[in-house]
Design brief:
Structural class: mainly alpha
Strand order of the largest sheet: 1-2-3
Strand content: 5-15%
Order of helices and strands: EHEHHE
Number of strands: 3
Helix content: 40-55%
Length: about 70
């Protein structure tokens, strides 16, 4: 079963340095929100590095209706 993670969930995982749940995915909207949040909050190098590692490993879904069927 896939877990579609929302922006707030990923922010909390990054802050707490917790592993991603197995079978996690995010939407492209979440990617944009995370990057905007990191810029607005002036995240430092380490948090941005953690964010980039997550974005490079987790599947990212586009914006389409079929996403609601996962």
């Amino acid at each position: 079963m896939l877990h579609l993670l929302d922006t707030n969930v990923l922010i909390n995982l990054i802050r707490s340095k917790t592993e991603l749940p197995a079978y996690s995915v995010i939407s492209i909207v979440t990617v944009g929100e995370l990057k905007a949040f990191a810029t607005k909050r002036k995240w430092g190098y380490q948090k941005r590095l953690t964010l980039e590692k997550i974005l490079n490993t987790i599947p990212i879904f586009g914006i389409e209706y079929s996403l609601t069927d996962i």
